[in-house]
Amino acid sequence: MLDKNVVIAHRGASGYAPEHTFASYDKSHFDMHADYIELDVHMTLDGEIIVMHDESIERTALTPGIIKEMTLQEIKQLTIGKWFNEKYPELKSAYYEEQVVPTLKDIFERYGDANYYIETKSPDIYPGMEKLLIDTLNAFGLVSEARLQNRQTVIQSFSHSVWKV
Questions:
Q1: Three-state DSSP class for 146?
Q2: Which of 42, 87, 106, 151 has the most crowded CB, counting CB atoms within 10 A?
Q3: Which residues are catalytic?
Q4: What CA–CA distance (Å, rounded) separates 103 from 51?
């Protein structure tokens, strides 16, 4: 009998390391061997897709800011693990405090041909994000017919109207 259960690493191994960071994704992908890497994506002011759950950087970077109003350069200056160490002192690591916000391209470069489960967060406030997402997936060969015979890329959105690409 074929096992139809799959493990989706929600925000990476977010119960063990700061969500949406390489620390979290490395743990879920390389150590825990999750079937899918789950990514929540937003777009910066200068049109780069980044991986973060919230529209604001406040919770994870512990500073005010809205992603759509920030450039990638501004986002890349943030560290996003200190909050995790404060909330979960039993899992604290100095490595977590060094974590930065990854771009979608950073993720694809690091994990290559993995299975991806991508959620577009509030795509209606990011004009052009869906086309950029599809173009990026194509550039990395993640939606080719040959790939889809063995691997999957799932895109989820709660905003049906934007998916007219």
A1: coil
A2: 42
A3: 10, 53
A4: 6
Q: What is the pLDDT along the chain (165 residues), one digit of tens a residue?
A: 556 788 999 999 999 999 999 999 999 999 999 999 999 999 999 999 999 999 999 999 999 999 999 999 999 999 999 999 999 999 999 999 999 999 999 999 999 989 999 999 887 899 899 999 999 999 999 988 777 778 888 888 877 665 554
Residues β-bridged to residue 61: none
Tell me the three state secondary structure of residue 38: strand
Among residues 13, 21, 11, which one has the least CA distance to residue 103? Answer: 21
Is the pTM higher than 0.85? The answer reads yes
DSSP letter string, 98-141: T--PPBHHHHHHHHTT--EEEEESSGGGSTTHHHHHHHHHHHTT
Q: Is residue 36 a contact partner of residue 9, using CB atoms and an 8 Å limit?
A: yes
Look at residue 1 and give its three-state secondary structure: coil
Pull the structure tokens for residue 101: 């916000």
For 37, the 3-state DSSP assignment is strand
CA dihedral 104, 35, 80, 93 (to 10 degrees): -140
- Is residue 63 a contact partner of residue 56, using CB atoms and an 8 Å limit? no
Question: Cβ(18)–Cβ(3) under 8 Å?
Answer: no
